[in-house]
């Protein structure tokens, strides 16, 4: 530790191991509604994309663990969408809620298939669905997606 630190700086430095943790914590506390949904969908797409990129470079066990983690995260995100769509007091039109439920079922089926019979190509549909839904939530449903996964 630096000797010239104030007490407050010393406490912060001791409690924050990763400087990005402060940003992540602030981001989580300030995200709400559509922004939170967008962040969750983009993170899900990013996790799946990372699996695709590492497909031939990681040992099979490590790849399987990474794929399982990415699929589990995406399943949780879509389970939340399903639960929200099933709420009786949900203000969305019934047709939209039904479509969300159908899409969530489709995504879940694709993720299970990717886990049962792993192939990097099987992840592309879920990545694209996540990114396109996120773009629509941000008000940019057509054209280039405003998300960079590279």
Question: What would your notes on this structure say?
Answer:
The chain is mainly alpha-helical and 150 residues long. The protein folds into two domains: 30 residues, no CATH class; 104 residues, Four Helix Bundle (Hemerythrin (Met), subunit A) (Up-down Bundle). It is built from six helices and no strands. α3 packs antiparallel against α4, α3 packs antiparallel against α6 and α4 packs antiparallel against α5. About 9% of the residues have low confidence.
Mean pLDDT: 82
The gross shape turns out to be globular
Strand content: under 5%
Cα(first) to Cα(last) distance is 36 Å
Q: What is the CATH class designation of the largest domain?
A: Mainly Alpha
Using only C-alpha atoms, the radius of gyration works out to 19 Å
- Strand elements, count: 0
- The amount of helix comes to over 70%
Instruction: Find the CATH topology of the largest domain.
Output: Four Helix Bundle (Hemerythrin (Met), subunit A)
Question: Could you say which structural class the secondary elements and strand pairing correspond to?
Answer: mainly alpha
Output the number of helix runs: 6
Can you tell me the CATH architecture of the largest domain?
A: Up-down Bundle
Poorly predicted runs are 5-17
- What is the string of helix and strand elements? HHHHHH
Largest sheet report? none
Number of individual domains? 2
Q: What is the topological layout?
A:
Layout: H1 7-15, H2 19-30, H3 33-54, H4 60-86, H5 94-116, H6 124-137
Helix pairs in contact: 3-4, 3-6, 4-5
